[in-house]
Amino acid sequence: xxxxACGGPVEIARPPSRDxxxxxxxxxxxxxxxxxxxxxxxxxxxxDGGAWGDPPITLTCGVGVPRGFGPASSCIAANGxxxxxxxxxxxxxxxxxxxxTVTLTPRVRLHVPATYxxxxxxxxxxxxxxxxTETLTAGTRCL
Length: 143
What we know:
Helix content is 22%, strand content 25%. By secondary structure, the chain is α+β, with helices and mostly antiparallel strands.
């Protein structure tokens, strides 16, 4: 869940305690700028995530299984990271898209406003691939 209130910091959920160490390591490796977007403040500051741009792209670490994901789901592969997005979001280029890493532990969710679909989204996935694969545990690849 993320919320921006009247220009204030974006709210990002803290990871569960079991994911805290891995999420802290990831947060330390996140890029200062994502897809050439400036960072924006988020709260709580110890949420071990990130926010960039206006409207913000947000990254939340330590999330659950995304809605619609199952054993036969296909993924979007980007630089060694498998991302899942619900079908309704992948088919509607005018809506926000929420991608979740489903083969890394802990899982990470990236919420991308519709305005950034296309080149900015692709650049964001490339920028995140290194920090994600260097700090999180890889599992079985998606279909």
